[in-house]
Amino acid sequence: MTEAQDLGFIDGCRAIAGAAHVLTGDDCAPFLTDWRGRFTGSARAVVLPGDAAQVAALVRLCARYRVPVVPQGGRTGLVLGSVPDASGDAIVLSLRRLNRVRSVDPRNRTMTVDAGCVLHDVQAAAAAHGLLFPLSLAAEGSCTIGGNLATNAGGTGVLRYGNTRELCLGLEAVTAQGALWDGLRGLRKDNTGYDLRDLYIGAEGTLGVITGAVLKLFPQPKAAITALVALGSPADAQALLALAEAACGPTLTGYELMSDVCLRLVAGHFPALPRPFPARYPQYALLELSSHESERHGTALLERAIEAALEAGVARDAVVATSIAQSRALWAIREHIPLAQAAAGKNIKHDIALPVSRIADFIAATDALLEDAIPGVQVVCFGHLGDGNLHYNIAPPAGIAHDDFLLRQDEVNRIVHDSVVAFGGSISAEHGIGALKRGELARYKSPVELGLMRALKAALDPLGIMNPGKIL
Amino acid sequence: MTEAQDLGFIDGCRAIAGAAHVLTGDDCAPFLTDWRGRFTGSARAVVLPGDAAQVAALVRLCARYRVPVVPQGGRTGLVLGSVPDASGDAIVLSLRRLNRVRSVDPRNRTMTVDAGCVLHDVQAAAAAHGLLFPLSLAAEGSCTIGGNLATNAGGTGVLRYGNTRELCLGLEAVTAQGALWDGLRGLRKDNTGYDLRDLYIGAEGTLGVITGAVLKLFPQPKAAITALVALGSPADAQALLALAEAACGPTLTGYELMSDVCLRLVAGHFPALPRPFPARYPQYALLELSSHESERHGTALLERAIEAALEAGVARDAVVATSIAQSRALWAIREHIPLAQAAAGKNIKHDIALPVSRIADFIAATDALLEDAIPGVQVVCFGHLGDGNLHYNIAPPAGIAHDDFLLRQDEVNRIVHDSVVAFGGSISAEHGIGALKRGELARYKSPVELGLMRALKAALDPLGIMNPGKIL
């Protein structure tokens, strides 16, 4: 692009979004660095449109000038999916001004929202109608629902309510040609042609830009009961899950696994947090049960399941929270694991999924492979066991500097991801691919699957302007 | 194709599937007529491959000879999706020999099956492990899981468990080029690229052939409780649904609506079935609650919800089944509506979905439009109200012959479907498009959405050999 063309393009952006909403030069900086601060890209401009029609007009302009478009929500992604590359060719298209809850339909249990709504605001708008939007994850105060949809975000409520994909009934999106597709249907059944909705969901902005969505809401449970159960092994954690699911059915809404390594890490860095058990155990499960009847009903049901597990020798000890404060304190242990890890120094992270039945075998096998390769290596393993999703993070052996250890990232990734694939798992459970795991995707996907994905990309974005360098 | 080419093609089919599994001439007849007997097509041959590799080889052969492929499961579809057109160009590719349950993983709550497994056999295989596969519909003794997936079948369990789409974790499919895609992953989280699974699901065989699937299983509830509630209006049915959902949460697993017209029709044609109430009421709701605790727990919970509805004036009368036989008898009333309609003569059927909140207004408005156009017309309206899915069927006024009435099908469809779209609904909730509703799809979908669908079809099936004339 010549300088004159560039000026013409920027003027075009200003004409569409208003001059105040087109940032250039140093003003772009807050939009260019990823959440963990590992990479800073460059952009021709950052444009903040005010509505979906402006998004469509901007994409048409970008198509005309062949300018790459990097859609951006709350910029909380963990795989470099929402920041531009270093070339400076792209614009960042920030959706943050599209932040209206358009409507709530309590009788249909749906809500229609702009893509730039912050997840926490979506949850609050549902709660204001006595309803639940169950998507819940650490970044909920900053991430946007559009980003959650683009990455098919997971979190702690998937066991009962599914991923973001399952929480969306309808979608509005701008195609790579800049056409506005209105698929904002609030229907629980609709078999009229190809499933465009689920194609845009999880595509990380590489096929188009999500501008709005119809979300599924749920009746608000009357009480949530939390328990922490001490266990001898990951196999016991699997057995307890099966037992709790059979006893509690859909009232079991959360099931998290944490190893003793995780609890010690949290205790070391956050000594004010409670230590629930006088003794130490190899593993712990955090259970959440939601009752639509009463707190008493939920507590009795969860206690019965845990007593059965203690009697069967599956569980070794347990605490059931008797107040909201106690429940929060138990969750706080789980939520402080990533913070404690960050405080302890850099580590090599993996967001993996496995069949639930293979978790224990995977952990045993992969721990051993890592110990063989790097004696003394520390595995910090926790996650959403109910969904088969582990955050299997690797820290250096004592005495090895964290930065030196990071140089072995490729070697560690190969051991872990080869093992994941051997156990029938996924190298990205809930974070997506972005630019970070693009090489890993190419390595592990079959040629048939890669070919199908490339055919879809070429069909829907023939100019290749939508978030290039992400996923494929 | 010359005669010699045709012989070469048929020989090729025999070489792949075995001569005994390639039918020609009159032997094809049982595969050519649709379930309701409204249309009989013609085929070059019916081929019954024995495994997915043979399916792939057959599709490659068809691609080479440019022979259209019509995938067929149990042939129970209602929209002419699985029978060939009259040209005789296509082969029918019957999946019925692919009927193995490949494996069950109870701890992962998944089952891997061939596409040709009959739904009832899938349910039974899950039950043999104490687990539930919740897809349930009238044709379950004949339909195949591959057909359920290809049409994203709905049924009576959607309120709690979702459509077939939500019950499938992984897929195996043969592309239009005859490549075998192995996406048989049993994972509850997997964000590694585009959602190919959901693209093949619901595509009615127009993008490829589904040959296998990993299905989600659920803990088996300990008891299912059924109740029939008499109501004053569709608006009361909506109010009762909201009340029951708030009180029962996810234990409410079924919610069906039937009008008094439906009950009188059933009573007239099946006088041996019970009449649950001494008086008549305008509408009835059939509720099913599933308890993971006990029959006593489930009954008490459902009775509390119904008592609250009676006190609030939302419900007028109610019976809660006290035995499995009573429960079956209540369901039998619901299940006999389509049979009673068939016995009464031909009618004009609509399988529609609406936002649950708009059902009552839709029924009132559309009933009035039809009465204006055709005085005395009979609306036989029932369906899965919990999912917003109505079977809104129209029978002739008294004294008008059914065959004469059918001549007004286009006029009736226009009134009903225009109204559906005006109320934000779908012209096909759970049956799909097939060849039958292709014109309606083209009429009601936006140019943007049709353009996206055509781009996907051209990208994945550039030769246009996969089930041509269906959907698009």
Notes on the structure:
Chain A is α+β, with helices and mostly antiparallel strands and 472 residues long. Chain A has 4 domains: 3-94, Uridine Diphospho-n-acetylenolpyruvylglucosamine Reductase, domain 2 (2-Layer Sandwich), CATH 3.30.43.10; 101-219, 2-Layer Sandwich (Uridine Diphospho-n-acetylenolpyruvylglucosamine Reductase, domain 3); 221-343, Alpha-Beta Plaits (2-Layer Sandwich); 345-431, Alpha-Beta Plaits, CATH 3.30.70.2740. Chain A has helices at 3-17, 52-65, 119-127, 145-150, 158-161, 196-200, 234-248, 260-269, 295-311, 324-344, 359-373, 402-406, 409-422, 438-444, 447-460; strands at 22-23, 45-47, 69-72, 91-94, 101-105, 110-114, 131-132, 168-175, 180-183, 208-216, 218-219, 223-231, 252-259, 283-291, 315-320, 351-353, 378-384, 389-395. A 7-stranded antiparallel sheet of chain A has the order 15-12-14-13-17-18-16, sandwiched between helices. Chain A has a 5-stranded antiparallel sheet with strand order 5-6-10-8-9, with helices on both faces. In chain A, strands 1-2-4-3 form a 4-stranded mixed sheet. In chain A, strand 17 (378-384) and strand 18 form a beta hairpin. In chain A, helix 7 packs antiparallel against helix 11 (359-373), helix 8 (260-269) packs across helix 10 and helix 11 (359-373) runs antiparallel to helix 13 (409-422). The longest helix of chain A is centred in the last third of the chain and has 21 residues, at 324-344. The radius of gyration of chain A is 23 Å and the shape is globular. The two termini of chain A are 25 Å apart. The relative contact order of chain A is 0.11. The model of chain A has no long low-confidence stretch (mean pLDDT 97). At the A-B interface, helix 5, strand 9, helix 6, helix 7 and helix 15 of A face helix 5, strand 9, helix 6, helix 7 and helix 15 of B.
